[in-house]
Design goal:
Blueprint (H helix, E strand, L loop, with lengths): L6 H20 L23 H24 L1 H28 L11 H15 L4 H28 L5 H24 L5 H17 L12 H24 L5 H7 L2 H16 L12 H24 L7
Helix pairs in contact: 1-2, 1-8, 1-9, 1-10, 2-3, 2-6, 3-4, 4-6, 5-6, 6-7, 6-8, 7-8, 10-11
Length: 320
């Protein structure tokens, strides 16, 4: 299927999936500093931004793609397409999570990964995708407020016990995607300046920072401040890359080909990580010297880039 996305979106999505791959690879290396890993609970690191960037990238194309499929295929086939797509993502995540539990990776009893979070968020967002921008904005904020209330009162222990917040946390990831589609409307409607997207992203960032006076910012909790700060930063970062690609004509070809097949590359990187993470040899991965980590990382990224290049050359695309 030929991609219907701009180079700006491909570049941003490629940056997001590349960041997710690198983050997962270095997460198990003990000498990597904490600011290059997810915050243990309360706090925010650069790595905490990569998954929301990917959610934001999905939001950039979700409503546009839904409208096109509605016009060409009708409502029923459009719904079938997105249900099948996000259910498949959820299923892939469940399979990898079950494998990690079976192999006792990191001692996990429950492993709810980012693919499950994306799958649930995509299905929930489908309920709202054909409403107008304001409705999606208010619905996303209401869902996020409800989640924060339930988190504080009832869900905190269960959310902290599961990676990415588990099934309860998926409510907040869903709110993030719904809000991302509302911000995306500003990008698609206003050309070429996109000043409204920049302003809305700055407001989201400011609101998220203001909420830290009452609620902690935490990826593990998928808290309201985390969602809003991440959306704001993602919107501003995307706007910057759009300026570089669309206005200044930067050719970021590597990120473009990564961004055209993000799901395939993400799933493949999970398989490739098994070669370094699964052998119970500390000197091979967790306590590996710098040179070995560099070699392993270069091989991982090199293989994935070669696959991305081949898929792009053959015009084979499977995007979220």
């Amino acid at each position: 299927m030929k991609p219907e996305r701009s180079d700006s979106i491909d570049v941003f999505r490629g940056l997001a999936v590349l960041g997710m791959v690198i983050a997962n690879f270095i997460a198990g290396v003990i000498w990597i500093p904490g600011w290059l890993k997810h915050a243990s609970d309360i706090g925010y690191t650069i790595i905490d931004l990569v998954a929301p960037m990917f959610i934001f990238a999905i939001g950039l194309t979700y409503a546009v793609s839904a409208r096109r499929r509605l016009e060409s295929d009708g409502a029923w086939k459009m719904m079938q397409h997105f249900v099948a797509r996000f259910a498949a993502i959820l299923g892939f995540g469940a399979l990898f999570g079950a494998g990690e539990v079976l192999l006792q990776v990191d001692g996990q009893v429950i492993n709810w990964g980012v693919l499950q979070a994306i799958g649930v968020a995509g299905l929930v967002t489908l309920v709202f995708i054909h409403t107008n921008t304001l409705t999606r904005l208010l619905s996303g904020l209401a869902l996020l407020a409800l989640y924060q209330f339930l988190l504080q009162r009832f869900w905190l222990a269960d959310v902290l016990a599961s990676p990415h917040g588990g099934l309860y946390g998926a409510v907040s990831w869903s709110a993030m995607l719904i809000l991302a589609t509302a911000l995306a409307d500003l990008y698609h409607r206003e050309k070429p300046g996109h000043s409204n997207l920049i302003a809305a992203s700055a407001i989201a960032l400011g609101l998220g920072l203001a909420l830290t006076l009452w609620f902690p910012i935490s990826k593990n909790r998928v808290s309201a401040p985390y969602v809003l700060v991440s959306l704001g930063l993602s919107g501003l970062l995307f706007s910057a890359f759009h300026l570089l690609v669309a206005r200044l004509k930067w050719r970021l070809s590597l990120l473009v080909i990564w961004g055209r097949n993000p799901l395939i590359l993400y799933v493949l990187h999970l398989l490739l990580l098994g070669f370094v993470a699964l052998p119970e040899l500390p000197a091979w991965y967790r306590q590996a010297p710098v040179w070995l980590v560099v070699v392993q990382g270069a091989l991982l990224l090199g293989i994935l880039t070669a696959i991305a290049w081949w898929l792009d050359k053959k015009k084979k695309y499977l995007s979220v």
